[in-house]
Amino acid sequence: MKRLFKTVVFGICNLYFKYRFRRSIKDTVRNQEIYLVDIDNTLADTWPSLQDYVYRNENHRYGSLSIFIGMRNFILDKTRTRQKVIFISARSYLDYFSTRKWLAANGLKADCVILVRRAEDKLDYINELLSRGVPVVYIDDLSYGHESGVMKLYEKVILKLKEMPIKYLGIKEIELINSAYETSNQGTKENSAYHQNYRSN
Known about the structure:
Layout: H1 2-25, E1 34-37, H2 48-51, H3 58-64, H4 69-80, E2 84-90, H5 96-105, E3 113-116, H6 122-131, E4 136-139, E5 143-144, E6 152-153, H7 155-162, E7 167-169, H8 171-180, H9 188-200
Parallel strand pairs: 1-2, 1-4, 2-3, 4-7
Antiparallel strand pairs: 5-6
Helix pairs in contact: 3-5, 4-8, 8-9
């Protein structure tokens, strides 16, 4: 009975996020890029919080995470120029409100926050955008296991992404963004290395 209840709740939550996503993109202009941005270990410095678990619960842990300043500034740069940014993360559905609160506390507008159960579930959202002819920039480190001392990648997901007609920015590109946008007043010289790499991918 408990398993059935859990399955029903997960199904409802999944439908809710699909609905929110479709509502968010319904007025998207054709050929306007949408930025899908992961949170954990891409925007938030998450993995160190898993090494010594000193938190009351997951909401407390997520609320305590520090943010990568470079990535934050990159996203702010996109929102200032009215580009659509959607946050997507593989977290428990129960962490939805703490996720939105964390984004807001870090000065990031969270009009659309999508939570999925697994990293590969994010592909469904990318495919939906592609089916509508919407260009996608997907930013996600797609890594795990840092806290155990051995970082691993979701290799199968990355291979699928590389077959898609999207701009995928992984670990190396994220490091470049963090370096180029490290200060809030980015000059042309500071950003040139990132943009050169971005165009080459």
